[in-house]
Amino acid sequence: MMAFELSRFQFWLTSVLGAYIDVDQFAGAQCWDLHAHFANFFGLPVINTTGGAVKWSGFAGTMYRDYPQTKAIEAAYVRIPPTERALPGDTAVWGDSFWYYPKTHVAQVIEDPGYEYVRCASQNSSESRWDNPFPGQSSGPVLDQWLPKQGLLGYLRPRNGLVLQGEIIQPEEDVMASLEEVRTVVREEIAALTQEGEAKKRNAGPLFGVAGNAKAAKDAAEEARDLLRPGVEKVRFAGPIPGMLASIQGQQAGLLEAVKQLASKPGSPVDLAAVEQAAKAGAESALSDLQATATTTVTLSQEG
């Protein structure tokens, strides 16, 4: 099963739909202003229109035709021909060869099913609305529109697709490797905590080493949960973290079980082998649960 993560892009889209966006405070809410808003939101360089005594001077079509206008733009975007299928977050640019775009046009792609229309967030490409703050300069607000591909010059695609499209969850073998790394760390922590507290054991009792490590495992689990907690941008975290969290939780459960067993035998020495075995059993149980419900997330970005 593959799940496509677009939460940050969806957040941006929801925030602009129905609005009149005027970034440069010039000529009202033009189609270019929506691209500028998009680029600013995602930390990308804004692709300005170019002027001079040339065709489409100052209009959106020059964004694609004159690419790359700067080294920063070349580093951030790759130019994609109109024959390729668009990806969410692509900047689609039209010329003036089709009547629907008399002065060229630019919009942000939401979806491309591969047919003669592309779904976009588009401004100034529909009838004016009653609350238009720029009458005579702009027409419609930002809409979720299906626009004809006829007259399309092509797309300007962010090179770093992960900015828009989530992360890649590592293949199963990588998750296994990460679990082994966590097991190694926990084993080292058990040994370090036990050795460090050797002098205190006489007063603290035989549970010092195990209880200390259980607390460390609990702290690590809480830290991992913080990493996985959805933030403002709600971007899905991926890679080895889910596997690490599952391992830590399993090891924590195993360690706490070992603590209970030792607590029933006051005065007994700490059996590190038993603790390690309990941690291993807990980790393997957590890994089994993780693998039973895991999904794989991939990006559909293309590097230039």
From TrEMBL:
InterPro entries: Papain-like_cys_pep_sf. It comes from Paenarthrobacter nitroguajacolicus (Arthrobacter nitroguajacolicus). This is Uncharacterized protein. It comes from the Bacteria.
